[in-house]
């Protein structure tokens, strides 16, 4: 693991009985990168992410995240990362301010830190007048943006985002990516899974998963050049067809 790597993975594998969900994947993520983990639904993206977050124990292989061993140092790992799941992760029966305070308290942030940063966050999201509003009453797009802001509120070294733009409209998706750029500008590494191939264009580098295996890893521009494609969707389709020719049954979204 070199000094610039914040994630280092070697032959990481996860099996459920006879089914191999993640099949001996290896890669590194550099500090400050926006790293896309792409693939169709069922390709193994979420399973891999859960292992890297210390939420699921690997069957075999090695993985270090922010310097912590995912097997032995899960508590230290969890204190240094942010995580946003596919399903909305905030408490809908609490207000916006109550959710922020609750999650910041979990990470042991001081009252002064919470007060100052809450004010800045509410201003950034233009939610000052709705701070005491129940989260459950917000539109879906605002819920997603708030959930992301809470995931990075404690200033983690890396944030994991699992299909963060699923189910929201294209305009909200673009606004969400603006928040990702702002977080990355502060030095937070962003690891994002998605099945929207156009979102690959927003990443510094991407890896494409097909049936639990990494089929490609490079910058979006390099991948399009390699596969003589005009879009990342074309790249993915070529890789999926290649996997089928090799006798695999490719999962589709």
Structure characterization notes:
- This protein is 35% helix and 25% strand.
- It is α/β, with parallel strands linked by helices.
- A 6-stranded mixed beta sheet has the order 6-7-8-3-9-10, sandwiched between helices.
- The chain has a domain at 1-80 and 161-168 and 193-253: P-loop containing nucleotide triphosphate hydrolases (Rossmann fold, 3-Layer(aba) Sandwich).
- The two termini are 34 Å apart.
- It has helices at residues 45-52, 74-79, 96-106, 111-124, 140-151, 170-185, 220-226, 232-245, and strands at residues 5-16, 19-30, 34-38, 60-65, 68-69, 81-84, 158-162, 189-194, 205-210, 213-218.
- Helix 5 (140-151) packs parallel to helix 6 (170-185).
- It contains 8 helices and 10 strands.
- GO terms for molecular function: ATP binding; ATP hydrolysis activity.
- Keywords: ATP-binding, Nucleotide-binding.
- Pfam families: ABC_tran (PF00005).
- This is ABC-2 type transport system ATP-binding protein.
- Residues 7-236 form the ABC transporter domain.
């Amino acid at each position: 693991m070199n000094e610039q790597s914040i994630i280092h993975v070697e032959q990481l594998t996860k099996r459920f009985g006879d089914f191999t969900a993640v099949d001996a994947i290896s890669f590194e993520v550099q500090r400050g990168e926006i790293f896309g983990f792409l693939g169709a639904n069922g390709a193994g993206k979420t399973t891999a992410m859960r292992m890297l977050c210390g939420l699921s124990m690997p069957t075999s292989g090695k993985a270090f995240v922010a310097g912590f061993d995912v097997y032995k140092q899960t508590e230290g790992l969890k204190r240094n990362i942010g995580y946003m799941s596919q399903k909305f992760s905030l408490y809908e029966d609490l207000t916006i301010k109550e959710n922020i305070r609750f999650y910041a308290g979990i990470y042991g942030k001081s009252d002064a830190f919470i007060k100052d940063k809450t004010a800045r966050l509410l201003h950034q999201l233009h939610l000052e007048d709705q701070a005491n509003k129940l989260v459950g009453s917000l539109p879906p797009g605002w819920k997603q943006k708030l959930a992301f802001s809470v995931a990075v509120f404690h200033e983690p070294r890396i944030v994991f985002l699992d299909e963060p733009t699923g189910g929201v409209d294209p305009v909200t998706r673009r606004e969400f990516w603006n928040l990702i750029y702002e977080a990355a500008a502060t030095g937070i590494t962003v690891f994002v899974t998605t099945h929207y191939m156009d979102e690959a264009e927003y990443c510094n580098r991407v890896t494409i998963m097909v049936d639990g295996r990494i089929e490609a890893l490079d910058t979006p521009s390099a991948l399009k050049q390699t596969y003589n494609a005009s879009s990342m969707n074309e790249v993915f389709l070529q890789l999926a067809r290649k996997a089928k020719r090799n006798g695999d049954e490719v999962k589709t979204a």
